[in-house]
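Good day; I would like, with your permission, to put a structural problem before you. A protein sequence and the structure tokens that stand for its backbone fold form the material at issue. Thank you for your consideration; the sequence and its tokens are set out here:
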Amino acid sequence: MSILDYNIEASLTEFEQCLIVTPSDEMTDDMISDLTEVIMKRVWKSELKGAIFNFARVKFMDPFIYSAFKRVSKALLFMGIPLVWAGMKPSAICALVDLGLDFDQEETPIVTAVDLESGLTKLHRQV
């Protein structure tokens, strides 16, 4: 199955052996599920050294979006692929805080950055 067979409403870009995933704010749960599958297939087939989830276009992060990207994050980390979550808007951050999320208490810590440029810098430090 090709990436063209999925309706994902997201951008996937490879830059300096890094996969940058920019999901849209208009994604449905099915699109998010498809996107996570596409990410895993893309990483498996490529010789990537890292990944960035750029949430700059996401205004609100509900529990499904969070848990889907958290699962993919864990899988990538198990594969030895460092990653950064970047560009989260204040409204998305507030939603996560309202859900009771504490990044420091997570069993798999997530590296975060304020924007894509900072995310690339942090990712290059990890590699």
The two ends are 30 Å apart (CA to CA).
